[in-house]
Amino acid sequence: MLNKIEEVGSNKFTFYELLGGIERVRDLVETFYDIMDSDPRAAPIRALHQPDLTEAREKLFMFLTGWTGGP
Question: What pTM, to 2 d.p., does this model score?
Answer without folding.
Answer: 0.79
